[in-house]
Amino acid sequence: MVAAACVPSPPPPPPPPQCSGCKVYLTFDDGPGVYTPQILSVLQSKGVPATFFVIGEHAAQYPSLVQQEHAAGEGTGNHTWDHQDLTTLPPDQVRTELQSTSDEIATLIGTRPTLWRPPYGAFNATDTQTASSSGLSMRLWDVNPEDYTLPGTDQIVSRVVNNVSKSAIILLHDSAPTNERPEDRSQTVAALPTIIDALRSLGYSFGTLATTSGATSTPTGPTGPRVPIGGE
């Protein structure tokens, strides 16, 4: 009998590079929901800002949470009324999806959002023109750990930390579309403190996208890439 050759273990991956003075942007989609208060608590305890792209019908269901986000200094963006794929809708319905959500946000916090994010990252030229005519500028994302698939807290952390770069917009979720509820965002809540600490150790600081007309006359922060349909 021939003994099997001893195969050495592969070397561990190199640590993420330092990025001293770099800024990244935490964003949360699909809320507000039952996990939003825990997300807000972590952000407050860490002194980190974020931007929440809210679903209009969820804002109507949890108005106090939208107000808490705004009072805490977080950004509030438009994620449509009920998270439909806008590329499948006629322009008048796209306009209703966006305007109804902006109206609801304005009622709750006193100012209209200036940023929006299309559900699933799905959009076409008509959608962006419709949004622009409603005073909305699109923001997508650079890093998507797919926390909504519940891959485990450690996976969420590593997918963010190992893929982040200067000015990256990070996509996380504090809730889920109505047809996917009840949601479980416990892994996102558990991962968030470690993500913040790990990125800070690499030299990153955190910014918030300016998402309301009261914040600035022109939206600030990066736009994010054109992501494929099905991204979130």
Feature tags:
alpha/beta, 7 helices, disordered C terminus, 5-stranded parallel sheet
Please tell me about this protein's structure:
The protein is built from 7 helices and 7 strands, in the order βαβααβαβαβαβαβ. It is α/β, with parallel strands linked by helices and 232 residues long. The chain has one domain: Alpha-Beta Barrel (TIM Barrel), CATH 3.20.20. Strands 1, 2, 3, 6 and 7 form a 5-stranded parallel sheet that branches. α5 links the parallel β4 and β5. α1 runs parallel beside α7 and α6 packs parallel to α7. The protein is globular, with a radius of gyration of 19 Å. The protein starts with 22 loop residues before the first strand and ends in a 25-residue tail after the last strand.
Number of domains: 1
Q: Between the first and last Cα atoms, what is the distance in angstroms?
A: 53 Å
How would a textbook summarize the main sheet? 5 strands, parallel
Low-confidence stretches: 212-221, 225-232
Strand content: 5-15%
Number of helices: 7
Overall geometric form? globular
CATH class: Alpha Beta
Reading the helices and strands in chain order gives EHEHHEHEHEHEHE
What fold name stands as the CATH topology?
Answer: TIM Barrel
Q: Averaging pLDDT over every residue, what do you get? A: 88
CATH superfamily: Glycoside hydrolase/deacetylase
Q: Structural class of the helices, strands and pairings?
A: alpha/beta
Rg calc: 19 Å
Helix content: 25-40%
Q: What is the CATH-assigned architecture?
A: Alpha-Beta Barrel
Strands, total number: 7
